[in-house]
Amino acid sequence: RWCQRGILQYALIRPLVTVASVILLAVKYYDDGAWRFDRGWLWATVINNIGVTISLYFLVLFYQIAKSDLTPYKPLIKFGVIKGIVFFCYWQSVIVMGIVALDWVPPFRDWERARIG
Prior knowledge:
Layout: H1 2-26, H2 40-70, H3 75-101, H4 113-116
């Protein structure tokens, strides 16, 4: 039961964080890419990261529990590829925003930093 809740909690957290982000964006408190505690982007990133980590942890537990039942379907490679894609796509955006925040990316035309990231 806990395994199921741990996996599915991200399906609840992600839409809630998205709605909160839209609201914060509307009131100008989101500030995409700002590594500041008084802005919403950092908190949305942290909450999403915790949700993804918990979900991946419980997916690994689920795999360990159901490994013998799932052996004929060879799920390990499929599981690894799908989770790898999700994991790296998420962290790619965080890393790019970090690189932009550190000013490692030179200015480009008249684009704002958040647009580059």
